[in-house]
Amino acid sequence: MKIILALICTILIFTSCSKDSKSGYVAKIDGVVITKEDVNEQMKMLPDMAKQFFEGPDGYSRFVDELVKKELLYLEAVKRGMDKDKEFQKKLEEFKKITLINNLLDKELEITPTVTDEDIKNYYEKNKEDFIINKQLRVSHIFVKNQEDLNRVKERLDKGEDFAKVASEMSADKASGKAGGDIGFLKKGELSPEIERIIFTLKKGQVSSPIKVNDGYRLIKVTDIKGTQLEFEKVKGLINQRLIAEKQKESFDNFIEKTKKNYKIDINKDEIAKLNLQGAQPKSQ
Fold it and tell me: CATH: 3.20.20.140, 3.40.50.2000, 3.10.50.40, 3.60.20.10. Which one for 121-229?
């Protein structure tokens, strides 16, 4: 039964039938006519997995039966007035909105951005650290126990003071502080997932934003990176896809900004703040 229902749902999504006969019909359900052209076109629209259900000598007969079932269910739903239901109308409007948005973006962003071999090579050279496997990071850290000390550390670093010097003078971790905050090479799995998600995106020489830990705050600097460098040819395709995606996003953002100029937009920050406060409230038991 589940397979049959899933099959009917698939046909409902991918097919629609005519009201007028273009040639000899294969089925009629009240005023709805299903023609040979309908059957062939709709069979082509099915996903390959769904087409497997209609293989064999009587495949088209079974497919027509499913189309008839679909029309019967649709006609019965309309007969019962379910197309007038407010919840249905709401879903229909949302579907229409999404479909129109997709059509608009297809039209406005239909040209695939051009990425040259030079673009790809330049990206690889500038971002080689992104293409290292079995990566290990040598890191230094500054650990402080309160917000006041964190502010003092940030102020000194923002002024350009050497990370190691600040670590030796201000880190509450005295053992690593003696070594300028150095804690050696680390690989994935040796720190908490929350910290790893941050530091394994850093490049050599970069310092993380303050990381809140149970007993204070950490600032982490990547001082060296080692691992196996992937060759350019092995990642060329991946870089090409990444650059295309970036250019598509840039085109989308530009289109949004251009379109905004044609409409008056009013963001009520006071009401948003209320929503944020409501969302922060603990749920009643």
Answer: 3.10.50.40
